[in-house]
Amino acid sequence: MTLKRWISAFLLVTLLILSHCVPKKNNDLVSDDFLFLYLLNSILNARELDCTFSPTSSDSLFNDQWHLYNYGQLGGTTGEDARVRSVWNQGYSGNQVIVSVVDDGIDLTHEDLKDNISISAKGLNLFNNSLFPSHAYSTSFHGSAVGGVIGARGGNGIGVRGAAPCSKLVGVNLLEKSTIYTSDEYRAMVNEMGKVYISNNSWGSPDEYGWLWPSSSLWQQGINEGISSGRGGLGTVYLWAAGNGANGASVSTPLLVDNANYDGQANYYGVMAIGGIGQNGMKASYSEEGANLWVVAHTQGNSATAYTTAITTTDAAGVFGLNAGGTSGDYSFSNYTRRFNGTSSATPLAAGVVALLLSKYPSLTWRDVRELVAYSARQNDIGDTDWATNGAGLQVNHKYGFGAIDAEQLLLRASSWTPITTPQRVETMSAVNYGTAIPDNNVIGVSVMYPVSSSISYIEYVDVEITTGHTYFPELGIVVTSPNGMTQSVLAEPHACANPATNSGCTFGSTTIAAMTGSSTYRFGIARTLGENPNGNWTIRVYDGGVGDTGTIQTVRMKIYGR
């Protein structure tokens, strides 16, 4: 027997002895059973425990989970859901797929989560520098709610089920830190990236400021490492909440504030930005639009005048979390809540659907997954006037991206998918200097041409860097038209703005891109030109929707990702 096997045998015997120690106290954060399985599995480097799930089995609150099966039971539109049931009926429920929940921790002992906590991938608690990402604060619940939407254990006769009820969850407690450093963001993105299939991120820049929030280079490095080296080189799939800051007023009298493109994480090429739609299939008033939006998923929406039914999921157990037991009309039993909402709940629903896909087709790369999600998305809210056909024949919408994620169509499309084998090419074009004045208070504005000549013939994503010293960025509109003349991408619109440093209105005459970001250049992202040929003249139109502030289009530079 080799030395390594002797050591493993010794540790195994030691753990078997330790497994008979006194059971955990009720207030212990981590159960002895979980710790024992985790340590044993780490030593033996075994796979996750297999899980089986029968769609006809019982979960007591499943009827309230309209986002998984909507037959109009709570006033919604029949069939307006994630279309997961047919996939479950095929026998796919996320088995062996590990999903990272980057959030404020996760309740490792929750009755509906504990059996789906990964025992092969290590958690990370950046709040207390441990391996156990439990909630530290009594008010924390968000990560547990997210985890439930993705992978609450199905068919156990209690509570709820996730979209992928056999997927495995690994928590990363990032958000309980009072100060989050860029190094923390990096560690959160790469934690256990060799094992993590999907990284769910229901967080991002602050909402309802109308401010520009560029992403850090270290965070970008983490994403780049994840998509290039994660999952044995297949790439970790990153999903990002598009944001809840679109509406700064009420449902009936909205006030435009945020766009998903103002968030430099949600508009990065390595992530899929996820927006939110309600049980009627229409955009939730708070869900941010953007040319970077990939798809939408279901969450609490609204009618013309009021919010509608939210999402039922797991809550931090006991009196902790969102529901202390009957809180604000919530369930009388406090381990669950029916009040989860926002793109925070839409994103994990999409993550759960992707987990279903990867449980059947685990060899798909991150690029395959992105395009399959786009090509299989369902055109929701068909009457919306923003729907357009891009140059590759895809339906696109600033509110909905490529449409609503659809598990049934996603797996159907994957069944005949030709894997992407061509390496991704990334070509940064030269910056073009214009120095062109932007007419004041003129909605027509000024247009400049940006020529692209590259070896890429199929766009996967586009970055547009715009440099301007305009003295009040929030009154600018920016529209980019691709060379075919068919696809217009709105990068910015005149909008309300508040300074996050003062929580008061932005100052006319001095709210430049540089004042917001530290640089007079900001990078926007475009998803909606997927499949188009980038070569030819792009048109960048910039207009000014207010009086008094002025500036010029100084430079434009584009980066094309594709093949």
Question: How would you briefly describe this protein structure?
Answer:
By secondary structure, the protein is an alpha/beta fold. The chain has 10 helices and 22 strands.
Report on the architecture of this protein.
With 563 residues, the chain is of the alpha/beta class. It has ten helices and 22 strands. The strands form six sheets. The chain has a seven-stranded parallel sheet with strand order 2-3-1-4-5-6-7, with helices on both faces. Strands 12, 13, 15, 20 and 22 form a five-stranded antiparallel sheet that branches. It has a four-stranded antiparallel sheet with strand order 14-21-16-17, with no helix packed on it. Strand 2, helix 4 and strand 3 form a beta-alpha-beta unit. Helix 4 packs parallel to helix 7. The longest helix is centred in the middle third of the chain and has 18 residues. About 2% of the residues have low confidence.
Q: Key features?
A:
single chain, 563 residues, alpha/beta, seven-stranded parallel beta sheet, five-stranded antiparallel beta sheet, 19% helix, 22% strand
Largest sheet, described in full? 7 strands, parallel
Q: Could you tell me the radius of gyration in angstroms?
A: 24 Å
**Adjacency order of strands in the biggest sheet:** 2-3-1-4-5-6-7
Overall shape: globular
Which bin fits the share of residues in helices?
Answer: 10-25%
**Secondary-structure-derived class:** alpha/beta
Number of helices: 10
Query: Roughly what fraction of the amino acids lie in strands?
Result: 15-25%
Enumerate the spans where pLDDT stays under 50 for 5 or more consecutive residues. Answer: 15-28
Between the first and last Cα atoms, what is the distance in angstroms? 50 Å
The chain-level mean pLDDT equals 94
**What is the total tally of β strands?**
22
